[in-house]
Amino acid sequence: QVQLVESGGGLVQAGGSLRLSCAASGRTASSCAMGWFRQGPGKERENVARISWNGASTGYAGSVEGRFTISRDNAKNTVYLQMNSLKPEDTAIYYCNARCRSTDYWGQGTQVTVSS
């Protein structure tokens, strides 16, 4: 079992920045691929960014490429999402995901609201 707890969401003006954190617990957390998903009002959940278990490989949705950066610190069992140049369309609940041997685990989500 892997437990995930997100933090760092909030209200920010367009053009601003936020950093989300996802604290993972569980014996195998550091060996899992991790990712951030988001679900905006009336929209489906979408994958925003992913990172391999050792941080060597990352991937981003086209809508956030160049603005968001995913990273991880396995010593702290924490994954981060640095979000810069935020836009109103980035408004969503952001969820942390861990994929461990084909099993998905999810956090409870953290709200990000970007005002214009």
List the main descriptive attributes of the protein structure presented here.
116 residues; mainly beta; seven-stranded mixed sheet; four-stranded antiparallel sheet; 11 strands
Written overview of the protein:
- By secondary structure, this protein is mainly β.
- The chain is built from no helices and 11 strands.
- The chain has strands at residues 3-7, 10-13, 18-25, 33-39, 46-51, 58-60, 68-73, 78-83, 92-100, 103-106, 110-115.
- Strand 5 (46-51) and strand 6 (58-60) form a beta hairpin.
- Strands 2, 4, 5, 6, 9, 10 and 11 form a 7-stranded mixed sheet that branches. The chain has a 4-stranded antiparallel sheet with strand order 1-3-8-7, with no helix packed on it.
- The mean pLDDT is 95.
- The termini are far apart.
Topology diagram in text:
Layout: E1 3-7, E2 10-13, E3 18-25, E4 33-39, E5 46-51, E6 58-60, E7 68-73, E8 78-83, E9 92-100, E10 103-106, E11 110-115
Parallel strand pairs: 2-11
Antiparallel strand pairs: 1-3, 3-8, 4-5, 4-9, 5-6, 7-8, 9-10, 9-11
